[in-house]
Amino acid sequence: MTSTEQGRRKYDALADRYEEIYFYVADMGQELVSAAGPPPGARLLDVGAGRGAVARAALARGCAVTAVDASAGMVARLADDHPEMVARQQDAGALDFPDGSFDVVTAGFLVQVLTEPAAALAEFHRVLAPGGMVALSLERQTVGRLGWLHDLNREFFGGESGGDPLSPDGLDELLVGSGFAAPERALVKVPKDMDDPAALWDWLALQGVPEALDSLPGGEAVTFRERFFRGAEEMHRNGGITLEFAATLHTAVRS
After folding, report:
1. What is the rounded distance in angstroms from the CA atom of residue 166 to the CA atom of residue 207?
2. Is residue 223 part of a domain?
3. Is 84 domain-assigned?
4. In the predicted structure, residue 161 carries a pLDDT above the cut 70
5. To 10 degrees, the CA torsion angle through 162, 168, 172, 177?
6. Is the residue at 124 inside a domain?
7. How many domains does the chain have?
8. Alpha-carbon dihedral 171, 130, 30, 249, rounded to 10 degrees
9. What is the pTM of this model?
10. Which one, 70, 139, 145, 172, has least CB within 10 Å?
């Protein structure tokens, strides 16, 4: 399996508010489909479809869309919201489609969370027709002026363990190693301005911060909140509060 049970549970829980938290996915979905450039009628498979940001953009171009996700909750919402597409629960590394079934395979912000991205890319290659296009988006980790918030989170909740994140160069190497040719990529930025510190807190609340604070001992939750608002108010006074997000869009051809 290329996705983990923990990851599937996480996205099941986020199904109803996914695009509120990850505000950039709708814009990036449109950007990714534009990068792939499928003609009307193209058979497009969207892997790790989530709430359908990429799939919706493909439908708008007249593609015949099949969307798959490892999360049962995401697939149920997709099927309800978009009966005009085929929605299936499948793992990215074990796609249940015949060889050469699609003209385009897309995957928005998927490969970076997989335990075995190379296995997924091999499946994308297999289900694409010769000359077909793969289009992937990869999140670029940026801290920018929110460094104070990252430091605060690390102090109270600790850092995440794990290896180095997948880099744009690393993804291009994986694409070539999986049999794709002529990889290209472009950097896209999607900033989001927050009205005030309370708006930033509300955005964090969507991600479960209040529940995480409940797990802190003693008065640490109160201390966290106080320090958060001091940092956010300082940021607001000195240039405003902006969530900085960037991604690379990768395309390649099935050789």
Report:
1. 23
2. no
3. yes
4. no
5. -10
6. yes
7. 1
8. 20
9. 0.85
10. 145
Which of 193-223 are b and which e, b meaning 16 or more Cβ less than 10 Å from the residue's Cβ? ebeebeebbebbeeeebeeebeeeeeeebee
Q: Within 10 Å of residue 158's Cβ, how many Cβ atoms?
A: 8
Expressed as residue numbers, the domain containing 94 is 5-139+161-189+246-254
Query: 105 phi and psi, to 5 degrees?
Result: -120, 130
Domain assignment present for residue 208? The answer is no
The tokens describing 150, both together, are 């990252």
Q: For residue 38, give Cα distances in angstroms to 28, 45, 46, 86, 166.
A: 16, 11, 12, 18, 26
Place of tokens 């896209």: 188
Q: CA nearest 17: which of 198, 206, 205? A: 206
List, for residues 107-142, the tens digit of each pLDDT value: 999 999 999 999 999 999 999 999 999 999 999 867
Q: Which two tokens stand for residue 220?
A: 């640490």
CATH code of the domain in which 60 resides: 3.40.50.150
